[in-house]
TrEMBL record:
UniProt record similarity statement: Belongs to the glycosyltransferase 13 family.
Pathway involvement of the protein, from the record: Protein modification; protein glycosylation
Membrane topology value: Single-pass type II membrane protein
Cofactor(s) the protein needs: Mn(2+)
Protein's name according to its UniProt entry: Alpha-1,3-mannosyl-glycoprotein 2-beta-N-acetylglucosaminyltransferase
InterPro entries: Glyco_trans_13, Glycosyltransferase_13, Nucleotide-diphossugar_trans
Keywords of the record: Coiled coil, Glycosyltransferase, Golgi apparatus, Manganese, Membrane, Metal-binding, Signal-anchor, Transferase, Transmembrane, Transmembrane helix
Catalyzed reactions: N(4)-(alpha-D-Man-(1->3)-[alpha-D-Man-(1->3)-[alpha-D-Man-(1->6)]-alpha-D-Man-(1->6)]-beta-D-Man-(1->4)-beta-D-GlcNAc-(1->4)-beta-D-GlcNAc)-L-asparaginyl-[protein] (N-glucan mannose isomer 5A1,2) + UDP-N-acetyl-alpha-D-glucosamine = N(4)-{beta-D-GlcNAc-(1->2)-alpha-D-Man-(1->3)-[alpha-D-Man-(1->3)-[alpha-D-Man-(1->6)]-alpha-D-Man-(1->6)]-beta-D-Man-(1->4)-beta-D-GlcNAc-(1->4)-beta-D-GlcNAc}-L-asparaginyl-[protein] + UDP + H(+)
GO molecular function, one term: manganese ion binding
Catalytic activity, EC: 2.4.1.101
């Protein structure tokens, strides 16, 4: 019996040993799995960190990606425009048009949008006098937008080059009530001038609008003006326009003046001036006076912006007594502003002036003040009220003193000339003096309170 019991325990011991071994192996295996699990968790944590970092980097790049996409769209649009321009130039032979013998005096660009009938009248007026001098004044039509009638009309002429400004960027006005059209016009001006100065490399550009006729001596006038512009850096631009150029206020087509007021409406500027203006060109275009009144604030757009002292920087403009352009556009973005009173009565010069034979050195900065002072000295002072009545009774030129803007406006309204000021300068004024003709030949000088002092004239002289 003892022997059998001993054998049983022995067998039990033998059975327990494998069990213990298996438990030890299982424990070792579990330890390995635990270590591997810990490693896996650590790896997952690192992967999560890297994933989050990558997500952050992707988020940071999203803005750049969007900007690049917008830039790509703009470049694609520009490429389409360039391809169209190249095809147009190839078809019309611009190189032949410009000629190999003589460099152009200036490019002539007509700014157009959606008035095909007006544009046709303007082109015909220009070609009437431009054809003999086409190599010196290459003609461009720059259309803002995609009006098919304007494009078709421009492309129907072989004597010009067509450009198209397609602007898909939305317009955001700065003030409530402003018209989007004026923002588009300002963008168009900048684009067209950049094209002509920087892509076509012209040294000067004459800017016209699609509702203008030109005088017979228009191109000779600007050729003479180009020489002044080149040698006198105090001249900012040459204009063909006189704001007080109505028939009753002008007489002599040979007379030119310097002015502190930018006239616009047919003007020429140089590339050096555009280099200065292009980077800071303003957003919009002149707004109608009615809107300015309702907003009760001074609103400045591109032509008024050019009239600011900070942009003129002491420079002046050359203008004629008798206009070399006539604006017939009663209907347009300005809604016929002042057309009946100021634009329709403008006298367009009809005399073929030989500008090449004329000595215009009196218009240079170092000579003009003395020349203009001489005109003033030979005028008769008129004082008191009833300026018009007193002027009627005096032979020869007269001058009338005004003390301030309200005084000027009162006198100007009596004669019917422009009363408007911009940045402290009356329209057409030179050193505060506005000059116009009265009763055919008589000059009337409206003289500011400090104008005589600026011109070196003592009171009573």
């Amino acid at each position: 019996m003892r022997k059998l019991s001993f054998d049983y325990r022995y067998l039990l011991l033998v059975a327990v040993l494998p069990f213990i071994y298996l438990q030890m192996r299982l424990f070792a295996t579990q330890s390995q799995y635990a270590d591997r699990l810990a490693d896996a968790i650590e790896a997952e944590t690192q992967c999560t960190r890297q994933t989050r970092l990558l997500i952050d980097q992707i988020s940071m790049q999203q803005g750049r990606i969007l900007s690049l996409e917008e830039e790509m769209k703009r470049q694609e649009q520009e490429c389409r425009q360039l391809r169209a321009l190249v095809q147009d130039l190839q078809g019309k032979g611009l190189a032949k048009l410009m000629g190999d013998v003589q460099a152009p005096v200036a490019a002539v660009v007509v700014m157009a949008c959606n008035r095909a009938d007006y544009l046709d009248k303007t082109i015909k007026s220009i070609l009437k006098y431009q054809s003999p001098v086409a190599s010196r004044y290459p003609l461009f039509i720059s259309q803002d937008g995609s009006d098919p009638h304007v494009k078709s009309k421009a492309l129907s002429y072989d004597q010009l080059t067509y450009m198209q400004h397609l602007d898909y960027e939305p317009v955001h006005t700065d003030r409530p009530g402003e018209l989007i059209a004026y923002y588009k016009i300002a963008r168009h001006y900048k684009w067209a001038l950049d094209q002509l100065f920087y892509k076509h490399n012209f040294s000067r550009v004459i800017i016209l609008e699609d509702d203008m006729e030109i005088a017979p001596d228009f191109f000779d006038y600007f050729e003479a003006g180009a020489k002044l512009l080149d040698r006198d850096k105090s001249i900012m631009a040459i204009s063909s326009w006189n704001d007080n150029g109505q028939r009753q206020f002008v007489h002599d087509p040979y007379v030119l003046y310097r002015s502190d007021f930018f006239p616009g409406l047919g003007w020429m500027l140089s590339r050096s001036t555009w280099d200065e203006l292009s980077p800071k060109w303003p957003k919009a275009y002149p707004l109608i006076i009615i809107l300015s009144f309702f907003l009760n604030q001074t609103i400045t757009y591109w032509d008024d912006w050019l009239r600011l002292k900070e942009n003129r920087r002491g420079r002046q403009f050359i203008r004629p007594e008798v206009c070399r352009t006539y604006n017939f556009g009663e209907h347009g973005s300005s809604m016929g502003q002042f057309f009946k009173q100021y634009l329709e009565p403008i006298r367009l010069n009809d005399v073929q002036v030989d500008w090449k034979s004329m000595d215009l050195s009196y218009l240079e900065e170092d000579k003009y003040a003395e020349y203009f002072a001489g005109l003033l000295k030979n005028s008769t002072p008129v004082h008191g009220t009833d300026a018009v009545l007193k002027t009627n009774n005096i032979d020869g030129d007269i001058r009338i003193l005004y003390r301030d803007q309200s005084g000027f406006e009162h006198i100007a309204s009596q004669f019917g000339v422009f009363e408007e000021w911009k940045d402290g300068v009356p329209r057409t004024a030179y050193k505060g003096v506005v000059v116009f003709r009265y009763q055919t030949q008589k000059r009337v000088f409206l003289v500011g309170s400090d104008s005589l002092q600026q011109l070196g004239i003592r009171e009573g002289k």
